[in-house]
């Protein structure tokens, strides 16, 4: 068992950052002269490099997939899936999770310093796509000496990156696990994102994105954007079961525009806690990248052509309560995979948590992923 050539420390959840030389040419025509990527690794790479697993995170996720977040102190966002005895196990896998291009947790994005000017890029950061994010991840894996992946795994936007990996680098991906995702954004998805972007840009502290040198950024607008988005991650049944129409406990009987209902208080907490760890401009860039994503369009308008001749094995999972990326979206991908001749398995799971089910306690999800990865190995 040997570590990857570029790695000299095998501590679990080691947080790393690397600056890679460019240029990285982007889909929009611009290029980045260099790229900084923040990532974490878990486990040890086999001598033949056959056990590497790349985990792709969702919109507001980060590289801290199974270790404590340095800002919030909270556990990693997928400790149910990643860890000792879990489906993705550092005892069996060499696990890599990288912060996506355009984000704010150490990878190049709007808050990064532009080497040409010495000040943050802000809205001068070039427009990015999910395929640009995947290209940056590929550069990182090249740097680590990882040429083939036992699996690429992700949910939501992470699942979109998995699909992009399988389409762009088919020879590097043996297995792909796509959870609660889609091959493109619907008009409704785009509409919800636009509401969030407008909330950010309507905040007077946004200042056209030039808020990094000021004491106050667009925290109110970003909090509202998070509140609106968070509603789409849940289900009506889940919200009703958790909150119903229950009021907050009050000493006074006077009601107004404070958080009178428990669900209001919950959403406000989600919004306020989010602004402590995320950058508003990054939110604008990444949501726009998700809206641009259309894998079929990238391949002449026919989704099956994205996977033509692929030897990658696919596992797709949807949830019956997910109305953000409903089961029909996963079925469309499965139909395209079948039409292309690719090997694909699919299951719809029952869970009350809505889109967030892939992050929560759904034991059947863990059994499906564990079984698929073991069979693929």
Automatic annotation (TrEMBL):
Known catalytic reactions: L-homoserine + acetyl-CoA = O-acetyl-L-homoserine + CoA
UniProt key word Cytoplasm: yes
InterPro entries the UniProt entry points to: AB_hydrolase_1, AB_hydrolase_fold, HAT_MetX-like
Residues the entry annotates as binding substrate: 226, 356
Statement: the UniProt record of this protein carries the keyword Cytoplasm: yes
Ranges where the AB hydrolase-1 domain occurs: 51-359
A GO molecular-function descriptor: homoserine O-acetyltransferase activity
Assembly information from the UniProt record: Homodimer.
Family named by the database record: Belongs to the AB hydrolase superfamily. MetX family.
UniProt xrefs under HAMAP family: MetX_acyltransf
The protein's name: Homoserine O-acetyltransferase
Organism: Sphingomonas natans
